[in-house]
Design goal:
One of its GO terms (molecular function) is metal ion binding. The chain is about 35% helix and about 15% strand. By secondary structure, it is α/β, with parallel strands linked by helices. Bound molecules: magnesium ion. Magnesium ion (MG) binds near residues 122, 124, 151, 152 and 201.
Length: about 325
């Protein structure tokens, strides 16, 4: 990783090749077999059934600013190319150890550098109700009409609904996006049923694959932002496939995360350029154009191969996740 993200500086994933192409199994290290089984379902469906046919051939992409000091914001944004082409910026806030003034200053710096971009903040559920109200009021004032939404400002589903109420009663109608409340619960549709959010952030691996994620979005009736979870370009192609298949895509997607890596496993990484990533496509004899993950580069695979010990750890996880998936 170019910079610490989700508390990590190094990312490991397992790559799987099936008849429909390459796929990625990369549950985060702390995930157990039950959570990992969703990620495995996503990888197996991608590698065996493919990634589907696209409705659009490019996807608008937001930049992501980790919890860095304001002085480092410009450098992070420079990784995304021409600043004027960035349609929206997601800014991480409420990271452990960060103070509330730094979070606001980071948002202000993004607004200063990119006065025309949409602004979102992501607290990963880490704010208390009082902190969320106070911070979002400050951020709404700084960002003004550019403020698109706040992603999972507080943990849970009911608290999101309560926060929406509190902000509205203060005349600060910030849109609320559910993220962890979608992918960390048994029923991803409960958010929509309770009116707890204005939109949902969807990631392919925790929802068990492109088809399942599409189904959840369609049934929720909410606008969706497709996001990635520190995937290599191979895993990322499944997120692009979902974004390419959603009937409506009103917001730029959080699929620019390959920019956070120092290295990738494919020769031409799926990085945003001019604010979009082209969807990787292939001609299929029966289905016409389909989304197809890129091939890993053998030399890069060799260079970034993990130790034998880490490989054994990954095969154990694969086996445990497979037992859960097979049992279901
Ligand atoms: Mg999030």
């Amino acid at each position: 990783m170019r910079t610490r993200f989700r508390g990590q500086t190094r990312r490991e994933v397992m790559l799987i090749r099936g008849p429909a192409g390459w796929a990625e199994f990369g549950p985060f290290p702390e995930y157990g077999p039950v959570e990992s089984a969703h990620w495995l379902r996503a990888a197996v469906t991608a590698a065996w059934e493919g990634l589907g046919a696209p409705l659009r051939e490019q996807v608008p992409i937001n930049a992501t600013v980790p919890a860095v000091a304001p002085a480092e914001v410009e450098q992070v944004l420079a990784n995304y190319g021409d600043l004027d082409s960035i349609p929206a910026v997601k800014i991480k806030v409420a990271e452990p150890g960060a103070n509330t003034a730094d979070d606001v200053a980071r948002v202000a710096e993004v607004c200063r550098l990119l006065p025309r971009a949409g602004i979102r903040v992501d607290a990963n559920g880490a704010w208390s109700m009082a902190q969320a109200v106070s911070q979002l009021c400050k951020i709404a004032e700084i960002a003004g009409p550019a403020f698109e939404y706040a992603e999972q400002p507080v943990a849970g589903i009911e608290p999101l609904a309560e926060l929406r109420e509190q902000l509205r009663s203060r005349g600060v109608p910030v849109l609320i996006a559910a993220d962890e409340a979608i992918r960390k619960v048994d029923d991803p549709l409960r958010v929509a049923a309770l009116g707890a959010a204005d939109l949902m952030v969807v990631k392919v691996p925790p929802l068990g694959g492109v088809t399942r994620a599409l189904d959840i979005v369609n049934r929720s009736g909410l606008p969706a932002v497709v996001s990635s979870a520190l995937d290599t370009s191979i895993g990322l192609s499944a997120g692009l496939a979902l974004a390419a298949q959603l009937p409506d895509l009103p917001y730029a997607c959080g699929l620019g995360t390959v920019s956070l890596f120092e290295h990738d496993v494919v020769a031409a990484p799926l990085l945003p350029s001019a604010g979009v990533i082209p969807v990787p496509l292939a001609e299929d004899r029966e289905d016409g154009k389909v989304v197809r993950s890129p091939e890993p580069d053998p030399e890069l695979l060799h260079r970034h191969r993990v130790s034998a010990e880490r490989q054994a750890w990954w095969f154990d996880r694969l086996s445990e996740a497979y037992d859960v998936l097979h049992g279901s």
